[in-house]
Specification:
NADH dehydrogenase subunit E; mainly alpha; transmembrane helix; transmembrane; 260 residues
Length: 260
């Protein structure tokens, strides 16, 4: 009876402590946290429920007494009556001698020696002749690499180039006369994109102005990180104006230093 009363009082105390913390949480959220009454009450209720279960498990768990901390099954082992066995009669001298002679004179089965000899010989057996193609395979081992083509490129790179839509435009290894046009005067081409265009071999307005639809599709697909900018910003129409010596509103802003 005392144990049950102690358990109830512990549970009540745990939940009372949780209720106090939940009420404090409600007040703090309402005053300092700028929460509404409903939100603060909801959060306070969550704190109350969580802490109530937590405190109950921590403070109200039954504690074992020092004498009761035995391993499970120990009481059954100690309380169960032991069954005493009658001592076995000692074997007689003649019986012992007989069994000893039988074990010493027994021989293994006829096939045991043959099987063990075959097993030992099998580990050392090697083929007398090389298998067909074995020598060529051992000589070629390690000389082939995955994805390598006859021209020294990779199969993945060739597939990527063949999968690109459109047709690659004519490119230059370097700008004509050693001086490239300021491609940043085309709206949509910034400093980084200008460097990418130069790496692809495009340095002048007339190159961009002469692109066909298939060539535009190829450039759009190969502008890494800027795909679709040629079509979206109408590079070709702007390049035609600039290649003919004209200006656009955007190129005038670039010349005045208002853009870059």
């Amino acid at each position: 009876m005392n144990g049950s009363n102690n358990g109830l009082s512990c549970q009540s105390g745990s939940w009372a402590l949780a209720a106090g913390v939940g009420g404090l949480t409600f007040v703090l959220l309402l005053v300092m946290g700028s929460y509404g009454i409903i939100a603060a009450a909801f959060l306070g209720g969550i704190v109350f429920v969580v802490l109530g279960f937590l405190f109950s498990m921590i403070f109200c768990a039954p504690m074992t007494k020092p004498g009761e901390a035995a391993k499970p099954g120990a009481s059954a082992a100690t309380t169960a009556p032991r069954r005493t066995e009658a001592p076995k009669p000692a074997p007689s001298a003649s019986h012992t001698a007989g069994t000893t002679d039988t074990k010493s004179t027994s021989t293994p089965p006829p096939g045991a020696a043959v099987a063990s000899a075959d097993a030992e010989a099998g580990t050392a057996v090697k083929p007398s002749k090389d298998l067909p193609g074995q020598k060529e395979l051992s000589e070629r081992k390690g000389s082939w690499k995955y994805g390598e083509t006859a021209t020294g490129g990779t199969a993945g790179g060739a597939a990527a180039a063949s999968d690109s839509p459109g047709t690659k435009p004519a490119t230059l290894d370097a700008p004509r006369g050693g001086e490239a046009d300021d491609l940043k005067r085309i709206k949509g081409i910034g400093p980084k994109l200008e460097q990418l265009c130069n790496r692809l071999g495009f340095y002048h307005f007339d190159q961009i102005a002469s692109w066909s639809d298939d060539e535009v599709a190829w450039v759009d697909d190969n502008l890494e990180g800027f795909r679709g900018r040629v079509t979206r910003d109408e590079w070709v129409s702007q390049a035609k104006v600039l290649a003919g010596g004209g200006d656009t509103d955007f190129s005038n802003r670039v010349d005045k230093g208002d853009v870059y």
